[in-house]
Protein backbone atom coordinates (compact mmCIF):
# COMPACT_ATOMS: atom_id res chain seq x y z
CA UNK A 1 0.00 0.00 0.00
CA UNK A 2 1.25 3.47 -0.84
CA UNK A 3 1.01 6.08 1.90
CA UNK A 4 2.73 9.40 1.28
CA UNK A 5 4.47 11.28 4.08
CA UNK A 6 4.79 15.02 4.40
CA UNK A 7 7.98 16.89 3.52
CA UNK A 8 9.38 14.38 1.02
CA UNK A 9 10.25 14.87 -2.67
CA UNK A 10 7.92 13.64 -5.44
CA UNK A 11 10.79 12.02 -7.31
CA UNK A 12 14.20 10.60 -6.37
CA UNK A 13 17.05 9.97 -8.80
CA UNK A 14 18.83 6.74 -7.95
CA UNK A 15 22.55 6.71 -8.79
CA UNK A 16 23.17 2.99 -9.24
CA UNK A 17 26.66 1.94 -8.13
CA UNK A 18 26.40 -1.87 -8.25
CA UNK A 19 28.64 -2.34 -11.28
CA UNK A 20 31.40 -0.20 -9.72
CA UNK A 21 31.18 0.02 -5.91
CA UNK A 22 29.32 -3.28 -5.85
CA UNK A 23 31.86 -5.28 -7.82
CA UNK A 24 35.16 -3.55 -7.02
CA UNK A 25 35.61 -5.59 -3.84
CA UNK A 26 34.87 -9.00 -5.38
CA UNK A 27 37.94 -11.21 -5.05
CA UNK A 28 37.20 -13.46 -8.03
CA UNK A 29 37.34 -11.79 -11.43
CA UNK A 30 33.85 -11.29 -12.82
CA UNK A 31 33.90 -11.80 -16.62
CA UNK A 32 33.52 -8.58 -18.63
CA UNK A 33 30.52 -10.05 -20.46
CA UNK A 34 28.75 -10.62 -17.12
CA UNK A 35 29.44 -7.02 -16.05
CA UNK A 36 28.09 -5.75 -19.37
CA UNK A 37 24.95 -7.84 -19.03
CA UNK A 38 24.54 -6.57 -15.47
CA UNK A 39 24.61 -2.95 -16.68
CA UNK A 40 22.17 -3.74 -19.54
CA UNK A 41 19.77 -5.43 -17.12
CA UNK A 42 19.98 -2.47 -14.70
CA UNK A 43 19.09 -0.13 -17.57
CA UNK A 44 16.19 -2.41 -18.56
CA UNK A 45 14.97 -2.21 -14.96
CA UNK A 46 14.62 1.56 -15.35
CA UNK A 47 17.76 2.86 -13.67
CA UNK A 48 18.78 6.03 -15.48
CA UNK A 49 22.21 6.63 -13.90
CA UNK A 50 24.46 3.58 -13.77
CA UNK A 51 28.05 3.95 -12.63
CA UNK A 52 29.82 1.61 -15.00
CA UNK A 53 33.43 1.17 -13.88
CA UNK A 54 36.61 2.96 -12.75
CA UNK A 55 39.60 4.14 -14.73
CA UNK A 56 41.94 3.73 -11.78
CA UNK A 57 45.28 1.97 -11.62
CA UNK A 58 44.54 -1.68 -12.48
CA UNK A 59 46.84 -2.90 -9.70
CA UNK A 60 44.86 -0.91 -7.13
CA UNK A 61 41.48 -2.34 -8.18
CA UNK A 62 42.13 -5.49 -10.25
CA UNK A 63 38.41 -6.28 -10.55
CA UNK A 64 37.90 -3.17 -12.69
CA UNK A 65 41.04 -3.59 -14.80
CA UNK A 66 38.79 -4.36 -17.79
CA UNK A 67 37.33 -0.82 -17.96
CA UNK A 68 38.56 -0.37 -21.56
CA UNK A 69 36.84 -3.60 -22.63
CA UNK A 70 33.64 -3.01 -20.65
CA UNK A 71 32.82 0.60 -21.43
CA UNK A 72 32.27 0.15 -25.20
CA UNK A 73 29.87 -2.74 -24.44
CA UNK A 74 27.54 -0.43 -22.50
CA UNK A 75 28.23 2.99 -24.05
CA UNK A 76 25.25 2.77 -26.42
CA UNK A 77 22.69 2.49 -23.64
CA UNK A 78 20.30 5.47 -23.31
CA UNK A 79 21.33 6.10 -19.70
CA UNK A 80 23.95 8.21 -17.91
CA UNK A 81 27.11 6.13 -17.38
CA UNK A 82 29.46 7.88 -14.96
CA UNK A 83 32.93 6.40 -14.40
CA UNK A 84 35.48 7.00 -11.65
CA UNK A 85 38.69 8.81 -12.59
CA UNK A 86 41.29 9.61 -9.91
CA UNK A 87 43.67 11.65 -12.05
CA UNK A 88 44.43 12.97 -15.53
CA UNK A 89 45.58 9.53 -16.68
CA UNK A 90 42.17 8.15 -15.70
CA UNK A 91 40.41 11.06 -17.40
CA UNK A 92 42.39 10.49 -20.62
CA UNK A 93 41.34 6.84 -20.63
CA UNK A 94 37.68 7.71 -20.01
CA UNK A 95 37.54 10.51 -22.60
CA UNK A 96 39.21 8.31 -25.21
CA UNK A 97 36.20 6.00 -24.95
CA UNK A 98 33.66 8.83 -25.09
CA UNK A 99 32.63 8.96 -21.42
CA UNK A 100 30.34 11.96 -20.77
CA UNK A 101 30.27 11.73 -16.97
CA UNK A 102 33.16 11.25 -14.62
CA UNK A 103 33.59 11.21 -10.86
CA UNK A 104 36.59 12.17 -8.77
CA UNK A 105 36.76 10.77 -5.24
CA UNK A 106 38.11 12.73 -2.32
CA UNK A 107 38.33 11.88 1.37
CA UNK A 108 37.39 13.90 4.43
CA UNK A 109 40.14 12.13 6.38
CA UNK A 110 43.90 11.92 5.91
CA UNK A 111 44.06 8.19 6.69
CA UNK A 112 41.66 7.20 3.92
CA UNK A 113 43.15 9.68 1.43
CA UNK A 114 46.48 7.95 1.98
CA UNK A 115 45.05 4.42 1.82
CA UNK A 116 42.84 5.01 -1.22
CA UNK A 117 44.79 7.51 -3.29
CA UNK A 118 48.33 7.46 -1.89
CA UNK A 119 47.97 11.20 -1.25
CA UNK A 120 47.14 13.63 1.57
CA UNK A 121 43.68 15.21 1.39
CA UNK A 122 45.11 18.38 -0.14
CA UNK A 123 47.42 16.52 -2.53
CA UNK A 124 44.38 14.58 -3.75
CA UNK A 125 42.43 17.81 -4.25
CA UNK A 126 45.38 19.19 -6.23
CA UNK A 127 45.35 16.00 -8.34
CA UNK A 128 41.62 16.49 -9.08
CA UNK A 129 41.88 20.18 -10.01
CA UNK A 130 43.11 19.68 -13.61
CA UNK A 131 40.81 16.65 -14.02
CA UNK A 132 37.74 18.74 -13.19
CA UNK A 133 38.93 21.71 -15.27
CA UNK A 134 39.58 19.56 -18.34
CA UNK A 135 36.32 17.64 -17.93
CA UNK A 136 34.32 20.86 -17.64
CA UNK A 137 36.11 22.30 -20.70
CA UNK A 138 34.97 19.18 -22.60
CA UNK A 139 31.40 19.68 -21.29
CA UNK A 140 31.65 16.46 -19.26
CA UNK A 141 29.56 16.22 -16.08
CA UNK A 142 31.65 15.84 -12.92
CA UNK A 143 30.57 14.23 -9.67
CA UNK A 144 32.72 14.70 -6.60
CA UNK A 145 32.61 11.86 -4.10
CA UNK A 146 33.58 12.58 -0.55
CA UNK A 147 34.37 9.49 1.52
CA UNK A 148 34.44 9.14 5.32
CA UNK A 149 31.93 11.95 5.92
CA UNK A 150 30.80 10.45 9.24
CA UNK A 151 33.33 7.99 10.63
CA UNK A 152 36.72 6.64 9.62
CA UNK A 153 38.12 3.22 10.59
CA UNK A 154 41.45 4.73 11.67
CA UNK A 155 40.40 8.17 12.97
CA UNK A 156 36.94 7.55 14.48
CA UNK A 157 34.19 10.19 14.30
CA UNK A 158 34.89 12.83 11.66
CA UNK A 159 34.36 16.49 12.72
CA UNK A 160 31.74 18.27 10.59
CA UNK A 161 33.99 21.26 9.67
CA UNK A 162 36.52 18.83 8.17
CA UNK A 163 33.80 17.48 5.86
CA UNK A 164 32.45 20.92 5.00
CA UNK A 165 35.92 22.15 4.00
CA UNK A 166 36.48 19.40 1.44
CA UNK A 167 32.91 19.69 0.07
CA UNK A 168 33.43 23.39 -0.52
CA UNK A 169 36.79 22.73 -2.20
CA UNK A 170 35.22 20.19 -4.57
CA UNK A 171 32.41 22.56 -5.51
CA UNK A 172 34.82 25.48 -5.90
CA UNK A 173 36.89 23.53 -8.41
CA UNK A 174 33.76 22.98 -10.53
CA UNK A 175 32.14 19.68 -9.54
CA UNK A 176 28.50 19.65 -10.68
CA UNK A 177 27.33 17.48 -7.79
CA UNK A 178 28.71 15.89 -4.65
CA UNK A 179 28.05 12.51 -3.11
CA UNK A 180 28.44 12.32 0.67
CA UNK A 181 29.87 8.91 1.50
CA UNK A 182 29.36 6.96 4.69
CA UNK A 183 32.04 4.58 3.51
CA UNK A 184 31.95 2.31 6.57
CA UNK A 185 28.25 2.68 7.33
CA UNK A 186 28.47 4.15 10.84
CA UNK A 187 26.19 7.19 10.39
CA UNK A 188 22.86 7.55 12.17
CA UNK A 189 20.02 9.88 11.12
CA UNK A 190 20.77 12.74 13.53
CA UNK A 191 24.35 12.85 12.26
CA UNK A 192 23.10 13.00 8.66
CA UNK A 193 20.81 15.93 9.48
CA UNK A 194 23.63 17.69 11.34
CA UNK A 195 26.00 17.35 8.37
CA UNK A 196 23.40 18.55 5.86
CA UNK A 197 22.57 21.52 8.11
CA UNK A 198 26.27 22.38 8.50
CA UNK A 199 26.72 22.26 4.73
CA UNK A 200 23.62 24.40 4.17
CA UNK A 201 24.81 27.00 6.67
CA UNK A 202 28.11 27.22 4.77
CA UNK A 203 26.37 27.92 1.47
CA UNK A 204 26.39 24.42 -0.04
CA UNK A 205 23.08 24.06 -1.94
CA UNK A 206 21.17 20.89 -1.08
CA UNK A 207 20.31 20.26 -4.73
CA UNK A 208 24.03 19.73 -5.40
CA UNK A 209 24.14 16.90 -2.86
CA UNK A 210 23.61 13.17 -3.13
CA UNK A 211 23.99 10.64 -0.34
CA UNK A 212 25.93 7.37 -0.42
CA UNK A 213 25.26 5.07 2.48
CA UNK A 214 26.82 1.72 3.23
CA UNK A 215 24.63 -0.52 5.37
CA UNK A 216 27.13 -1.97 7.87
CA UNK A 217 24.98 -1.19 10.91
CA UNK A 218 21.59 -1.41 9.16
CA UNK A 219 21.18 2.38 9.19
CA UNK A 220 21.28 3.12 5.47
CA UNK A 221 17.51 3.42 4.93
CA UNK A 222 16.97 5.47 8.08
CA UNK A 223 19.81 7.75 7.02
CA UNK A 224 18.32 8.06 3.55
CA UNK A 225 14.95 9.09 4.95
CA UNK A 226 16.65 11.77 7.08
CA UNK A 227 18.41 13.07 3.96
CA UNK A 228 15.17 13.13 1.94
CA UNK A 229 13.46 15.06 4.74
CA UNK A 230 16.28 17.57 4.42
CA UNK A 231 15.66 18.06 0.69
CA UNK A 232 18.16 15.65 -0.89
CA UNK A 233 16.79 13.99 -4.06
CA UNK A 234 19.80 11.97 -5.31
CA UNK A 235 20.48 8.68 -3.55
CA UNK A 236 23.25 6.20 -4.37
CA UNK A 237 22.43 2.51 -4.07
CA UNK A 238 23.76 -0.82 -5.25
CA UNK A 239 21.61 -3.53 -6.81
CA UNK A 240 21.31 -6.45 -4.42
CA UNK A 241 23.31 -4.60 -1.75
CA UNK A 242 26.65 -5.57 -3.31
CA UNK A 243 29.66 -3.60 -2.32
CA UNK A 244 32.47 -2.44 -0.14
CA UNK A 245 35.74 -0.62 -0.53
CA UNK A 246 39.02 -2.52 -0.83
CA UNK A 247 40.85 0.32 0.94
CA UNK A 248 38.55 0.73 3.97
CA UNK A 249 38.44 -1.96 6.64
CA UNK A 250 34.83 -2.68 7.66
CA UNK A 251 33.21 -1.21 4.56
CA UNK A 252 30.39 -3.64 3.79
CA UNK A 253 27.69 -3.50 1.14
CA UNK A 254 25.95 -0.37 -0.02
CA UNK A 255 22.33 0.41 0.59
CA UNK A 256 20.53 -2.13 -1.62
CA UNK A 257 18.68 -0.50 -4.51
CA UNK A 258 15.73 -2.88 -3.98
CA UNK A 259 15.41 -1.89 -0.30
CA UNK A 260 15.48 1.77 -1.32
CA UNK A 261 12.90 1.31 -4.10
CA UNK A 262 10.61 -0.64 -1.76
CA UNK A 263 10.64 2.24 0.75
CA UNK A 264 10.24 4.94 -1.90
CA UNK A 265 7.38 3.09 -3.62
CA UNK A 266 5.62 2.78 -0.28
CA UNK A 267 5.99 6.52 0.20
CA UNK A 268 4.60 7.20 -3.29
CA UNK A 269 7.95 8.62 -4.49
CA UNK A 270 8.68 8.07 -8.17
CA UNK A 271 12.00 6.43 -9.15
CA UNK A 272 11.23 5.03 -12.60
CA UNK A 273 12.48 1.62 -11.45
CA UNK A 274 10.67 -1.67 -12.07
CA UNK A 275 11.25 -3.53 -8.78
CA UNK A 276 10.44 -6.96 -10.24
CA UNK A 277 13.01 -6.63 -13.03
CA UNK A 278 15.59 -5.22 -10.65
CA UNK A 279 15.13 -8.06 -8.17
CA UNK A 280 15.42 -10.61 -10.98
CA UNK A 281 18.69 -8.94 -11.99
CA UNK A 282 20.11 -9.17 -8.47
CA UNK A 283 19.07 -12.83 -8.19
CA UNK A 284 20.79 -13.46 -11.53
CA UNK A 285 23.94 -11.62 -10.33
CA UNK A 286 23.92 -13.51 -7.02
CA UNK A 287 23.95 -16.75 -9.03
CA UNK A 288 26.96 -15.49 -11.01
CA UNK A 289 28.78 -14.56 -7.75
CA UNK A 290 27.79 -17.83 -6.07
CA UNK A 291 26.14 -16.40 -2.94
CA UNK A 292 22.75 -14.93 -2.08
CA UNK A 293 22.08 -11.21 -2.16
CA UNK A 294 22.25 -9.55 1.27
CA UNK A 295 19.24 -7.35 0.37
CA UNK A 296 16.21 -8.11 2.53
CA UNK A 297 13.88 -7.00 -0.26
CA UNK A 298 15.57 -9.24 -2.82
CA UNK A 299 15.29 -12.17 -0.43
CA UNK A 300 11.65 -11.44 0.43
CA UNK A 301 10.53 -10.95 -3.16
CA UNK A 302 12.49 -13.82 -4.62
CA UNK A 303 11.16 -16.31 -2.05
CA UNK A 304 7.57 -15.20 -2.41
CA UNK A 305 4.95 -17.41 -3.95
CA UNK A 306 4.36 -15.85 -7.41
CA UNK A 307 0.62 -15.57 -6.55
CA UNK A 308 1.42 -13.32 -3.57
CA UNK A 309 3.44 -10.78 -5.64
P1 LIG B 1 50.07 5.98 -7.22
O1 LIG B 1 50.75 4.68 -7.01
O2 LIG B 1 50.40 7.12 -6.31
O3 LIG B 1 50.23 6.38 -8.75
O4 LIG B 1 48.50 5.69 -7.16
P2 LIG B 1 51.22 7.43 -9.45
O5 LIG B 1 50.46 8.68 -9.74
O6 LIG B 1 52.48 7.54 -8.66
O7 LIG B 1 51.53 6.65 -10.81
C1 LIG B 1 52.19 5.39 -10.77
C2 LIG B 1 51.95 4.62 -12.05
O8 LIG B 1 50.55 4.34 -12.18
C3 LIG B 1 52.33 5.40 -13.31
O9 LIG B 1 52.82 4.44 -14.24
C4 LIG B 1 51.01 5.92 -13.82
O10 LIG B 1 50.96 6.12 -15.23
C5 LIG B 1 50.06 4.79 -13.45
P3 LIG B 1 54.37 4.29 -14.52
O11 LIG B 1 54.81 5.66 -14.95
O12 LIG B 1 54.97 3.86 -13.20
O13 LIG B 1 54.42 3.21 -15.58
N1 LIG B 1 48.71 5.32 -13.27
C6 LIG B 1 47.61 4.85 -13.88
N2 LIG B 1 47.41 3.83 -14.73
C7 LIG B 1 46.14 3.64 -15.17
N3 LIG B 1 45.10 4.41 -14.82
C8 LIG B 1 45.26 5.43 -13.95
C9 LIG B 1 46.56 5.66 -13.46
N4 LIG B 1 47.05 6.57 -12.59
C10 LIG B 1 48.37 6.37 -12.49
N5 LIG B 1 44.23 6.20 -13.61
C11 LIG B 1 46.28 6.27 -7.86
C12 LIG B 1 47.59 6.79 -7.28
C13 LIG B 1 45.26 7.37 -7.70
C14 LIG B 1 46.50 5.95 -9.34
C15 LIG B 1 45.85 4.99 -7.10
O14 LIG B 1 45.87 5.27 -5.73
C16 LIG B 1 44.49 4.47 -7.48
O15 LIG B 1 44.28 4.05 -8.61
N6 LIG B 1 43.55 4.48 -6.52
C17 LIG B 1 42.17 4.05 -6.76
C18 LIG B 1 41.55 3.46 -5.53
C19 LIG B 1 40.11 3.11 -5.77
O16 LIG B 1 39.64 3.00 -6.89
N7 LIG B 1 39.37 2.92 -4.66
C20 LIG B 1 37.98 2.58 -4.69
C21 LIG B 1 37.08 3.71 -5.14
S1 LIG B 1 36.73 4.91 -3.88
C22 LIG B 1 35.36 4.24 -3.03
O17 LIG B 1 35.04 3.11 -3.21
C23 LIG B 1 34.55 5.14 -2.14
C24 LIG B 1 33.22 5.57 -2.77
O18 LIG B 1 32.40 4.46 -3.08
C25 LIG B 1 32.44 6.51 -1.83
C26 LIG B 1 32.32 5.97 -0.39
O19 LIG B 1 31.76 4.88 -0.18
O20 LIG B 1 32.81 6.68 0.48
C27 LIG B 1 33.46 6.36 -4.07
MG1 LIG C 1 31.09 3.41 -1.60
UniProtKB/TrEMBL annotation:
Q: Which positions fall inside the Pyruvate carboxyltransferase domain? A: 12-279
Q: Extract the Gene3D superfamilies matched here.
A: Aldolase class I (3.20.20.70)
Keyword terms of this UniProt record: Lyase, Metal-binding
Q: Specify whether Metal-binding is a keyword of the entry.
A: yes
A Gene Ontology molecular function term for this protein is:
lyase activity
Cited SUPFAM superfamilies:
Aldolase (SSF51569)
A Pfam family reported for this protein in Swiss-Prot or TrEMBL:
HMGL-like
Does the keyword field hold rRNA-binding? no
Q: Which residues form a coiled coil?
A: none
The lineage's top-level taxon is Bacteria
Family classification: Belongs to the HMG-CoA lyase family.
- What is this protein's name? Hydroxymethylglutaryl-CoA lyase
Q: Which organism is it from?
A: Streptomyces actuosus
Q: Highest lineage ranks of the organism?
A: Bacteria, Bacillati, Actinomycetota, Actinomycetes, Kitasatosporales
Amino acid sequence: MTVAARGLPARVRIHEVGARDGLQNEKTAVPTSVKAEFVHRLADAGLSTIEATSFVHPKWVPQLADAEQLFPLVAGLPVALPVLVPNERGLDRALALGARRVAVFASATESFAKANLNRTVDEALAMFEPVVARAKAADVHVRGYLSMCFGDPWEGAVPLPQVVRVCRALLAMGCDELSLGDTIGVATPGHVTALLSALGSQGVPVDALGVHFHDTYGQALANTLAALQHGVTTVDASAGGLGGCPYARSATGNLATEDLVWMLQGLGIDTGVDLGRLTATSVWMADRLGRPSPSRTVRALSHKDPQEQ
